[in-house]
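Review this:
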Amino acid sequence: MKNLKLIIYIITLFFYTNISFGQNLVYADMDSIIKTSIAGKNIIVYFKKKNDELNDQLNKKKKIITEKEKSLVAQKNILEPDEYLKRINEIKTEINQFNLEYNKKIENLNFERDSVSKSFQIEINKVLKEFVEKNNIDIILSSNLMLVGKSNLDVTEKLLKQVNDNIKNFKINK
C-alpha cells in the first residue's frame, strides 16, 4: 500500500514537473517601457511642467512674503507695538493660508499623477495581453524582480515597439 502511494506520488510529481518546463517564459523591463514609450515620455513631461509651474508660484509668493517681512522689520521702530504685532499676524496668516493652498495643489497634482499612471498601466496591460496571445507566451516577468535571465528571453524592445504602436494618443484627463 505504501509502495502504491509512493509510485502515484512520483508519477504525479513527474507529470507536473513536465508541465511546468513546457511554459514559455520571458521577461521585460517595465520601468524602461513606461519611461521610454512615447506616451510615457509625454506623461513625464506634462507632470514635470505642472510641478515646475507650482514651484514657480511658490518661489514668487515666498519672494513677496519675504519683501513684506523685510519692509515690516524696517518699520519696526516707526510703528506702534500694536500695529507692528497686527502686521506680523497678517503676514503669518498669509503664510499659513498660502501653505494650505500650496499643499492642496500638491495633493491634487499627486492624485492626478496617480490617476493618470493607473490608466496608463491599464493601457499597457491591454498591450501585454495582446502581445502574450500573439506570441504564445505563458508568463512575462518583470526584469527588476529577477536576478539573471538569458538575453534572448528579454522582450523589452518588442514590447516597447508594441506600446508605441498601440498607445499613440493617450489622453491625460485633467
Q: What stands out?
A: The CA atoms of residues 29 and 144 lie 7 Å apart. The first strand starts at residue 25 and ends at 28. The chain has five helices and two strands.
